[in-house]
Protein: Thioesterase
Amino acid sequence: MPHHTPPAADIQFEPEFITGVKQVFEEKIVFNQLLGLKITSVLPSQVKARIEMRNELVGHYAYNRIHGGVISAGLDAMGGLAVMVAIGARHMDEPVPQRLQRFAKLGTIDLRVDYLRPGIGEWFELRAEVMRLGSRVASTRMEFLGADGKLLSTAAAAYIVS
Structure:
């Protein structure tokens, strides 16, 4: 029997769930801490975060630009976050701690990044949404924007969710 999921717009996350997601994403995943990823919005349909420009994040040859690897890693992390949140929304019948446990099994299968413009700025916004959440694989779409709202990079990824 298929698991019925209410439309994303109808789902209201508990503050405890949002706090838990932020803790896992910003504190327990050490690489995200290194990137300085900070969640700014958690909705069932879309997640947003921010990266502040720091010296450690610049490329070797372009001193004022954020490194492409940082962009790629940030977008990958955001795709994973969008999947975490979509899984949380799918299992609203479960208690918060049980839903947060589901994130342990998540892994990237495929990631494609398109670099459209150089990453120059004091901070950047990252956005991600799940296009499809299957029983084993989730597909996501992500964006990396400058402080002025200009689209700098886009990405698409697939994650194993079994």
Q: What stands out?
A: Residues 1-6 have pLDDT under 50 and may be disordered. The CA atoms of residues 59 and 67 lie 4 Å apart. The beta strands are 38-42, 47-52, 107-115, 123-133, 137-146, 151-160.
